[in-house]
Amino acid sequence: MRHEALEHILTPLSDGDLALFTTGMISREAFNIRDRAENFYMIGSMGLLNALGLGLALQSPMWRIWVIEGDGSALMSLGTLPLIATLRAHNLIHVVLDNEVYESTGGQPTISSEVDLAALAEAAGYARVWRVSDPVSLQQALQEAEDTKILTFILVKVTGRAPEGLGRVSLTPEEIKRRFSQVLTRV
What we know:
Helix content is about 40%, strand content about 20%. The protein has about 190 residues and is α/β, with parallel strands linked by helices. The chain has a single domain (about 1-185), classed as Thiamin diphosphate (ThDP)-binding fold, Pyr/PP domains (Rossmann fold). A six-stranded parallel sheet has the order 2-1-3-4-8-7, sandwiched between helices. Strand 7 (about 130), helix 7 (about 135-150) and strand 8 form a beta-alpha-beta unit. Helix 1 (about 1-10) packs across helix 2, helix 1 (about 1-10) packs parallel to helix 7 (about 135-150) and helix 5 crosses helix 6. The mean pLDDT is about 90.
């Protein structure tokens, strides 16, 4: 269901939506589903994406910022959750795709089966927190996040692994940065 969840997130994104994807399989899947200049693929820096997303949301309030990471990445940066909540970036939508494993390094289990990431986001003070595990609930959460324009955290419990033979992001980190920077200067 992770691949389908990414399709649900990526398909309706408009030119006013910037989407940031965590390192590893999530970036690779997003790139293969719908690459666009408004996508930023974090290459090799697990756990830093939500801080980057917060900075971008604060500096660029005219954009809606989507931070899409896995449970492993979210667990690596728990200290950032209260900072994000305190600064209340109304244009930030934080999505965690939780399959309870470190997908990119071979499927070792994370602790997200024991740690409720949505409860942590609530405790940190996110304005709206969703827990979803099916396409209908995900669609409702995404629609509300777009409509309400408040700081939102969406925990998506997913199953499945990345498709066999999934291609890598074919852009270099320099190309990703250059392309994304050009988007930011359009406004």
